Amino acid sequence: xxxxxxxxxxxxxxxxxxxxxxxxxxxxxxxxxxxxxxxxxxxxxxxxxxxxxxxxxxxxxxxxxxxxxxxxxxxxxxxxxxxxxxxxxxxxxxxxxxxxxxxxxxxxxxxxxxxxxxxxxxxxxxxxxxxxxxxxxxxxxxxxxxxxxxxxxxxxxxxxxxxxxxxxxxxxxxxxxxxxxxxxxxxxxxxxxxxxxxx
Length: 199
Hints:
alpha+beta, 25% helix
């Protein structure tokens, strides 16, 4: 079943480059390139995803004096054949040369994905492999269903799960000393609570 879905998401076989992708007409859909394969992203994010994403973005603002904090849709051009759109991106201000008109051209300091039902395999396996391959130091995965935040840290050519934060745990990172917020802050919005009970 997972293979059928993966095949369905593939738009074009063969080696697709950023240049070919950038030259495509705008059809209102979002795409990413994984090792030269152009894939269509899931339909627009749900309201639950967007509310959690907005709260995460707000929680990270205390880092804004040291980091540029950006969010999807925005191309992160890791190579000519790997172009991704993480939900949240942080780049240290000492590395602003990778922030260009086209997007982020190089490895950010942190990428974050908020899982959606249709993105779990992509975010936890395929994107994780791409992010590790391009040496992004830290990768967070926010799971709305379990209300957790996984902090993965690059160790050589792969990620290690260093922390699994939940409930009132305070999210911290030795790589990002400005970070400090409780996981519960991402999920305690009244509108979000209502939607989660209906889901």
